[in-house]
Design a protein that fits this description.
CATH architecture of the largest domain in chain B: 3-Layer(aba) Sandwich
Helix content of chain A: 25-40%
CATH class of the largest domain in chain B: Alpha Beta
CATH architecture of the largest domain in chain A: 2-Layer Sandwich
Strand content of chain A: 15-25%
Distance between the termini of chain A: 37 Å
GO molecular function (chain A): iron-sulfur cluster binding; metal ion binding
Oligomer: heterodimer
Radius of gyration of chain B: 20 Å
Shape of chain A: globular
Shape of chain B: globular
Number of domains of chain A: 3
CATH superfamily of the largest domain in chain A: ATPase, nucleotide binding domain
Order of helices and strands of chain A: EEEHEHEHEEEHHHHEHEHEEE
CATH topology of the largest domain in chain A: Nucleotidyltransferase, domain 5
Largest sheet of chain B: 4 strands, parallel
Strand content of chain B: 5-15%
Number of domains of chain B: 2
Number of strands of chain B: 10
Radius of gyration of chain A: 21 Å
Largest interface: A-B, 36 and 37 residues
Protein name (chain A): CoA-substrate-specific enzyme activase, putative
Keywords (chain B): Kinase, Transferase
Number of strands of chain A: 13
Cofactor (chain A): [4Fe-4S] cluster
Number of helices of chain B: 13
Keywords (chain A): Iron, Iron-sulfur, Metal-binding
Helix content of chain B: 40-55%
Chain lengths: 327, 330
């Protein structure tokens, strides 16, 4: 039995799981689509992971991150529940200790993290606008009938530049349609889109920030070679895409869990068996004040394990499962 | 029966309520305040305000709607300028007009113009106009105003000690709770109506404090300090709140005990689009301190704000300790 740590990153588009051993080697990773059902995605992921490595490993600690981190933390009994920025920073530092810039583009979020001397120095996240994130690329790939996996390599075949407005996803789409009607090649349009995304990212998140090498590109979109090349052209430096780029959040969660367990000496992990548990979410509207908070009650095998969603703490303090609440 | 005067709990309520509350009460009127901002108030405000308005102005409209059927007068002064050669946000200059054309069935508004851009000579004229809705007796109004001003100074003195409106007894602005001593100091920049409305700000002050961070706002700063630092600008900042924010930001850049700055801006704020940008550029140019802008809008999802606050606090801790021993929760 190998002593291992489990990291779970529940994002808007994908749920990623990583298993890391004591020497910080990654044993296995899993990338599955959340498809709007985080509870099911986590269960499926754990089941799959159990089938793959469950018999050979002993889980010493578990960490969760991503926008669904609190939910995942409650489900699996996490030792560390951390935001994506810290998790991505910790993971990148593990692979490239002198990293100075992290470009992270996920499903709904994009982030820039600047590091100096091995610590996070500055960061920015995209605002409410989802232009230039993975879900927008997904949609465009679907519309053009190209599998997202081939999107990047197609961009590389482009011979002539086509400029697409990348400021807004809606305008970018109409711009693309317009360029198609004009008869431009599909490769050129795809390349134009990759450049527009990279430009938009640098204008929005990179604004006023000093982007210096080494630059690491991670998150689901890092798999897209077209976008990576576009960044390299715009920044004028080489961009490193680490081996586990698409699951770096989960890797970071493993590292944070390892640290936390070393500190407190035990894990709260509930075991892979929870994949067999029945989870139920029941919500109601609290009518105690005009805020009408939507309170969510989370049940495992018909026993209530957590409540969240209220602003005043009336409900989530009722059952002290863990001293944390979901936003 | 006493005259009922309604004061909406929005915009400069967080600045001047103690003054006018005491003023009207001393004159013998009954002051009615709208409920603390809640979902319904935001919803009503958003539905009944012109599209271009910013979130706090929309919320203000919601407070007006909450009050309008239970008062004799609504106190919606037309605040144009409170300091010489300075202005308040342009939206305040048209606030009574905006309210009266957007909200139907209003009681009469007390919409006195307050404009001290040139001088304060007309201060008492404005005070008399406001008070005359309750009484015509000049000496009574004078007395009530001096009572109000005393109350206002007490309130501002409490704020300067770090006791924010959320720490005070809701309706009377008396000190309510004792604030614990926190480790890191973070300056929270922004307009008072964004910072101190717990629902609008998604409770950012309490969220930071829960992470053991001491929050410093422009209202906690000494006026002379603010002015001294604000004078470092190449050109005078002609918005009063802009001056306070910039002065605080410059101060925070220099004070070594301050770990970072968070600018809380609301979507659609024209002033913030300028001030936040100047502040960010200046901070980046001449200091190494972390600076982040958080934008508030009608979103009810707090996850985005929470992630950013958490990452920001992690970052300042990590930068200060320069080692990996940050907490794993929260």
């Amino acid at each position: 039995m190998k002593k291992c740590y489990l990291g779970i990153d529940v994002g808007s588009v994908s749920t990623n799981i990583a298993v890391m051993d004591h020497e910080k080697n990654i044993l296995d990773t899993l990338y599955i689509r959340t498809q709007g059902k985080p509870v099911q995605a986590i269960k499926n992921g754990l089941q799959e992971m159990k089938n793959r490595v469950g018999n050979n490993v002993e889980i010493m600690g578990v960490g969760t991150t991503g926008s669904g981190r609190q939910l995942a933390g409650i489900m699996v009994g996490a030792d560390a529940v951390k935001n994506e920025i810290t998790a991505h920073g910790v993971a990148a530092l593990n692979y490239v200790p002198d990293v100075r810039t992290i470009i992270e583009i996920g499903g709904q979020d994009s982030k820039i993290i600047l590091l100096r001397d091995g610590i996070i120095y500055d960061f920015a996240m995209n605002t409410v606008c989802a232009a230039g994130t993975g879900s927008f690329l997904d949609r465009q790939a679907e519309r053009l009938g190209i599998p997202i996996e081939e999107f990047g390599t197609m961009a590389l075949q482009s011979k002539a530049p086509v400029r697409i407005a990348g400021r807004c996803a809606v305008f970018a789409e109409s711009d693309m349609i317009h360029k198609q009607q004009l008869g431009h090649n599909q490769e050129d349009i795809i390349n134009g889109l990759c450049e527009a995304m990279a430009r938009n990212y640098l204008n929005n998140l990179g604004k006023g920030k000093e982007i210096t090498a080494p630059v690491i590109f991670q998150g689901g979109v890092a798999a897209n070679i077209g976008i990576r090349k576009a960044f390299e052209r715009l920044l004028g430096c080489e961009i490193c895409v680490p081996q586990y780029a698409n699951v770096m959040g989960a890797v970071g969660a493993c590292l944070l869990a390892k640290e936390e367990v070393a500190r407190k000496g035990k894990t709260d992990f509930l075991g892979f068996e929870i994949a067999q548990s029945e989870y139920q979410v029941k919500s109601f509207e609290c009518e105690h004040c005009p805020n009408l908070c939507e309170v969510v009650q989370f049940h495992r095998d018909s026993s209530l394990v957590a409540r969240w969603g209220d602003k005043c703490g009336r409900w989530n303090n009722l059952k002290d499962y863990r001293d944390e609440k979901l936003a | 029966m006493d005259i009922k005067i309604g004061i909406p709990r929005g915009l400069l309520y967080y600045y001047y309520f103690p003054l006018w509350n005491k003023f009207f009460e001393t004159l013998g009127a009954e002051v009615v305040v709208s409920q603390p901002t809640n979902k319904k108030i935001i919803e009503n405000g958003v539905k009944n305000t012109v599209d271009e308005a910013c979130l706090p102005v929309k919320v203000y409209h919601g407070h007006v709607m909450d009050l309008k059927d239970r008062v004799d007068f609504l106190f919606v002064p037309k605040l144009m300028s409170i300091y010489k050669n300075e202005y308040i946000c342009p939206k305040f200059c048209g606030l009574p007009e905006m309210v009266s054309s957007s909200v139907k069935d209003l009681p009469p508004l007390i919409d006195t113009v307050i404009n001290f851009r040139k001088s304060r000579k007309k201060l008492f004229k404005a005070v008399y106009e406001i008070g005359s809705h309750v009484t015509k007796n000049v000496s009574e109004i004078e007395h009530a105003y001096s009572e109000g001003i005393t109350n206002y100074h007490n309130y501002r003195a409490l704020m300067k000690q770090g006791i924010l409106p959320i720490d005070m007894n809701k309706d009377h602005f008396q000190k309510r709770k004792v604030i614990s001593v926190n480790q890191q100091k973070v300056v929270l920049l922004g307009h008072p109506y964004n910072l101190y409305d717990p629902l609008l700000s998604m409770n950012i002050v309490e969220k930071l404090r829960a992470k053991d961070v001491m929050v410093i706002t422009p209202e906690m700063m000494d006026t002379a300090t603010i002015n001294r630092y604000a004078n470092q600008m190449d050109k005078k900042m002609f918005w009063s709140f802009g001056r306070k924010i910039m002065g605080t930001a410059f101060y925070a850049m220099e004070d070594p005990t301050i770990s970072g700055m968070i600018y809380l801006s609301s979507f659609g704020c024209g002033l913030d689009s300028v001030i936040a940008d100047i502040a960010e550029r200046r901070v980046r140019r001449s200091s190494k301190k972390p600076f982040t802008v958080l934008t508030l809008d009608e979103h009810t999802g707090e996850a985005g704000i929470d992630t950013r606050i958490e990452a920001f606090v992690d970052m300042i801790r990590w930068r200060e300790k320069n080692e990996n021993n940050f907490s794993s929760h929260g």
